[in-house]
Write a structure and sequence with these properties.
The protein is built from six helices and 19 strands. With about 230 residues, it is an alpha+beta fold.
């Protein structure tokens, strides 16, 4: 199977991904309504209902199995990127299931519950462990990066940016820096251990957009100085 990303030029133009499947290839698409063009035998696509856990996690009812030979194109939301990741038998990565866009046969999925305090802060109660051998597609806001973990020195990552983390990683939800810094940042994961964390390289930042477009200096200062100023001062 071959997956090619394409981006149209100019303005608010979107991004598409082209899939080329050989005769022996098969892929399961978790967002079948994003398929905008298909070339192949009509019976090469077979939609089916997700299991109950999949329906809850993706908030969708249907996935589509596509079998080659065929070609098809999927539309990606503006600002999002699609990255293919190979899963091998020894992988211990825990994924945010909402980022999963497709997977190939041979991928096994297992739910892992979070600790209670992490559920509260992360607003999520489980991760998805992928094992077996195959390929998955991850839909992320901005490019996907691999950040190496260390046994002693913690890596601080904005909790909203983490797409996957090693199961063996030691985690704490925290803030860092001096008092002013910790008061105005989002919660971060402090990670130590072995392996890599997968992190999306962008976030919607409406405050930054307002600043770039000329928001007043007084409002910007008050938002930074007053505790929770970003919430009360618009």
């Amino acid at each position: 199977m071959q997956v090619d990303n394409e981006e149209q030029s100019g303005g608010e133009a979107g991004r598409v991904a082209r899939f080329t499947l050989a005769a022996e290839d098969k892929v399961s698409m978790l967002h079948p309504r994003q398929i905008i063009a298909y070339r192949g035998h009509p019976q090469g696509r077979a939609d089916r209902f997700m299991n109950l856990k999949g329906m809850y996690r993706k908030k969708k009812l249907i996935l589509a199995d596509l079998t080659g030979p065929c070609e098809f194109m999927t539309a990606l939301p503006h600002g999002f990127c699609l990255r293919s990741v190979t899963i091998e038998g020894g992988s211990d990565l825990l994924f945010e299931f909402r980022h999963l866009f497709y997977y190939t046969p041979g991928i096994r999925m297992e739910h892992k519950l979070l600790q209670f305090k992490k559920m509260i802060i992360a607003r999520d109660w489980m991760k998805m462990k992928l094992s077996g051998t195959g390929e998955v597609g991850l839909l992320t806001y901005g490019p996907l990066y691999e950040l190496e973990l260390h046994e002693q020195e913690p890596l601080y990552v904005d909790a909203r940016c983490v797409v996957a983390m090693p199961e063996n990683a030691r985690l704490d939800l925290c803030v860092y820096g001096n008092h002013l810094a910790s008061q105005h940042m989002n919660y971060h994961w402090s990670m130590t251990g072995r392996g890599v964390a997968l992190v999306q390289g962008s976030l919607p930042n409406h405050e930054l957009e307002l600043e770039i477009h000329g928001d007043g200096i007084v409002k910007r200062v008050l938002r930074e100085v007053i505790p929770f100023g970003g919430v009360f001062i618009k």
